[in-house]
Amino acid sequence: MRKVLLLSLICLCLSCNINQPDPLLEGVWRAELQVTDTEILPFNFEVTSRDALKIFNADEVIMVTDISYSNDTVVLKTPVFEGYIEAVVENGKLSGNFIKENEDRILPFKAEFGNAKRFETKEGVSSNDISGNWEAVFSPNSEADRYIAKGIFEQDGLTVTGTFRTTTGDYRYLEGVMDGDIMKLSTFDGAHAFLFTAKVTDSTMSGMFYSGNHWQEPFVAKRNESYELPDANNLTFLKEGYEVFEFSFPDAEGNVVSLTDNRFKNKVVVVQIMGTWCPNCLDESKYYSEFYDINAEKDLEFVALAFEYAKSEEKAFQSIKRLKDGIGIQYPILLAQYGSSDKAEAQQKLPMLNHVLSYPTSIFIDKKGKVRKIHTGFNGPATGEKYIRFQNEFESFINQLLDEN
Fold first, then answer.
1. Strand 147-156 relative to strand 52-57: parallel, antiparallel, unpaired?
2. Which of 11, 157, 317, 401 is 20 to 30 Å from 305 by CA-CA measure?
3. What CATH number was assigned to the domain covering residues 132-223?
4. Domain 248-403, CATH number (from 3.40.30.10, 3.40.50.300, 3.40.50.2000, 1.10.10.10)
């Protein structure tokens, strides 16, 4: 009987191994996302073990530990965000899709082992050095879609890193090359897949921005070392006739939380308008979470209002839990809306604001319940000095409010 049981267990183990692909080869891989018939978005990752890999975007390193194998398929799920890669493993190559179920988006994906180059170059030389600041306009010929931006780049040989800042946030860590007179930049973080290409002269660039395979728009830029975007503290404000900021939204336990609750009385409050799907919100949440933990003993509270595109309340709260657990957020995140992250709909939930221009947006409220400042967007760590200036201004203003009676 024991022999029969032992034989059965051996067969079961062999069967399980047959139904699982070999683990991904350890080392560097080059991945491609197909954004159009002719344009690909490349990025690199390094497999460090059967159950772990790192995705690279310039100075950003994203640790991925949610890796599962089944039959001939591997599923790679990035932290916090809902997007995942599902691919067939065969002969040191991957072939499949990047999937975002709640948005019904699928992007063709493939990867090969042993290639550390992000972009393949044809010229092998650079006609220009794009280091510095650029005054940019996206969708310049569309009144409805037009918006301004500031390009911030550093070039070392052919390698280019940097980002575009806009009035609503930045495009995070971009990495790429100058190939002759063509600039190519990309980033992939599990939420957004961005590709920028442009023809460059010594003082101008003209190109195209691709967001996955669902959106593309032209942009133009010119060198301007002194260019600055409008002050992020003057873009969103309380409408005339409103004296206070108010909300009442549920937490994961079904408790309706309002700004009039005892936990917020006689305290400085930072209200964060955000979404778990938003990379700029993730950057801001990391910073706010650390600041909140360090200053837990002070008369200070944070509360986030999440506007989710998840199709059900249950899935929306699952996304909120994933974010909270992923970066250790201790302050409450309330569900303000699900099924859509539309800013016009968000503004209806918060009618005292002139508009919801950006995710994220932060409302600073003093101990007496008065709105003292509203900051639109977030300059994350990819913006370098701007991010440091934001931190200094934020901490100085919070300390000023805390010192008031």
1. unpaired
2. 401
3. 2.40.128.120
4. 3.40.30.10
The amino acid sitting at 26 is E
The reported pLDDT for the residue numbered 15 is: 46
CATH 3.40.1190.10, domain 19-113, yes or no: no
pLDDT, tens digit (0-9, with 9 covering 90-100), for 190-213: 999 999 999 999 999 999 999 999
**What is the overall mean pLDDT for the chain?**
94
Close Cβ partners of 134 (under 8 Å, ≥ 6 residues apart) = 150, 151, 152, 153, 205, 221, 222, 223, 224, 227
Q: What is the pLDDT of residue 107?
A: 97
Rounded to 5 degrees, φ, ψ at 404 are -80, 150
CA distance to 214, 264, 285, per residue, from 297 (Å) = 46, 14, 19
- Whether the per-residue pLDDT at 9 is higher than 70: the answer is no
**CA separation for the pair 75, 97 (Å, rounded):** 10
**For position 317, what pLDDT does the model report?**
97
- Both structure tokens of 78: 């990035």
Q: Which pLDDT does position 21 carry in this prediction?
A: 75
Structure-derived torsion over alpha carbons of residues 334, 338, 344, 349, reported in degrees to the nearest 10: -40
- The rounded distance, in Å, linking the Cα atoms of 134 and 227 is 7
Tell me if 132-223 shares its fold with 248-403: no
Alpha-carbon torsion angle 400, 402, 403, 405, nearest 10: 120
Which range (11-15, 143-147, 253-257, 286-290) has the least confidence?
Answer: 11-15
pLDDT in tens, 105-120: 999 999 999 999 999 9
Q: Distance between CA 53 and CA 24 in Å, rounded?
A: 10
Ordered by start, the domain boundaries in the chain are 19-113, 132-223, 248-403
Rounded alpha-carbon distances, angstroms, from residue 96 to 31, 32, 56, 93, 109:
11, 10, 20, 10, 5
Can you give the pTM of this predicted structure?
Answer: 0.91
User: How far apart (Å, rounded) are the C-alpha atoms in residues 316 and 335?
Assistant: 8
DSSP 312-339: SHHHHHHHHHHHHHHHT--S-EEEEE-S
